[in-house]
Specification:
Elements (H helix, E strand, L loop, with lengths): L6 E4 L1 H8 L4 H13 L3 E3 L2 H8 L4 H14 L8 H9 L16 H11 L9 H16 L1 H6 L10 H16 L7 H19 L6 H11 L4 H11 L9 H12 L7 H7 L8 E4 L3 H6 L10 E3 L19
Parallel strand pairs: 1-2, 1-3, 3-4
Helix pairs in contact: 2-4, 9-10, 10-12, 10-13, 13-14
């Protein structure tokens, strides 16, 4: 299938697959061809986040370099930007929905694409420290969602999150009307609200920081309470549910430190026309048939990429 006039999103596994045998000249030609077809090949702050976590510096820099030449110069919005937009009612006019990130990382990315000699500089130690916290939540999702702790003085962070989630769940839902599997999905929903919007773990942390600075709400507990009482629609519908259902679909089989990152990519389904992935977990998620947005997922074994010969004309100097 050929695509025309489409916003096409590449999840990280698809980026790795498409770029693995590319040279810079191929990347330039590919972006030119897609532009001629009216297509925009997008990546997101989540894609860059996962690239930044690659320990092999040579491979990481190769991906950054090829991505600058292959993908669109504007990043899609970050997870926190998408959720805050939904809370603000901006998803009601989906045809006019602004999809480009206004974060600092997005500006850095645009500058890199316009001036490829620039590199992505970041504090690797601090970045990996925060990412490790995020991955730890991912790895212990079963404990957070399924366990119930009663000791309010408990110091363990994972247990504290579980206490807050279970307390909120009981306050919001009538348990007799929610079966065990539904309860897991709803609690995962609450967990993502806590982690992204209250604790503020995102690759664009200044977005959440700016939101709470305006509200003058500092503690994680007060933020959690504020969001649930002020924006109830966040747990009823919207992009957060894609995230939660993806995490739920992987819980039984994956339980890995990368589970949350995989789920974050599903936030982009309402924003784009096609999501390319080379990760089989997305196949399982697609089988859930949540709504038409899920049909946008396309595994790379369903398509073929043809490499065409590239000519470069050199005009001799007189």
């Amino acid at each position: 299938m050929e695509y025309y006039n489409r916003n096409i999103y590449f999840e990280t596994s698809a980026v790795n697959f498409v770029l693995k045998d590319m040279a810079i000249i191929d990347a330039i030609a590919t972006r030119s061809l897609q532009a001629a077809k009216g297509n925009k090949w997008y990546i997101s702050p989540v894609t860059l986040w996962e690239m930044m976590l690659i320990n092999d510096v040579g491979h990481r820099e190769k991906l950054f370099t090829l991505s600058k030449y292959s993908f669109y110069k504007y990043l899609l919005k970050s997870p926190s930007e998408i959720l805050l937009d939904y809370m603000d009612g901006k998803f009601k006019v989906s045809k006019n929905l602004a999809i480009h990130s206004t974060s600092h990382l997005a500006q850095v990315w645009t500058n890199m694409c316009e001036n490829p000699s620039l590199r992505l500089e970041f504090d690797e130690g601090e970045f990996k420290k925060v990412s490790s916290q995020f991955k730890n939540y991912s790895k212990q999702i079963d404990l957070i969602v399924n366990s119930i702790f009663f000791d309010l003085e408990v110091k363990d962070e994972i247990k504290q999150l579980s206490i807050m989630i279970n307390a909120a769940f009981k306050a919001i839902y009538k348990e007799q009307y929610v079966d065990r599997e539904q309860a897991k999905i709803l609690k995962i929903n609450l967990l993502f609200i806590l982690v992204i919007l209250c604790i503020g773990i995102d690759v664009t942390p200044e977005i959440v920081q700016g939101f709470w600075k305006q509200k003058s709400v500092k503690s994680v507990y007060q933020r959690f309470e504020y969001i649930l009482s002020t924006y109830p629609k966040l747990i009823e519908d919207g992009p957060l549910l894609f995230l939660s259902f993806m995490a739920y679909s992987q819980m039984k089989s994956k339980k890995s430190r990368g589970l949350f990152h995989d789920a974050l990519h599903c936030l982009y389904l309402p924003l784009i026309d096609v999501l390319f992935t080379n990760d089989d977990d997305f196949k399982e998620f697609k089988k859930m048939h949540l709504n038409p947005n899920v049909d946008k997922i396309c595994h790379l074994d369903e398509v073929s990429f043809t490499k065409k010969k590239t000519w470069v004309d050199y005009e001799p100097l007189s």
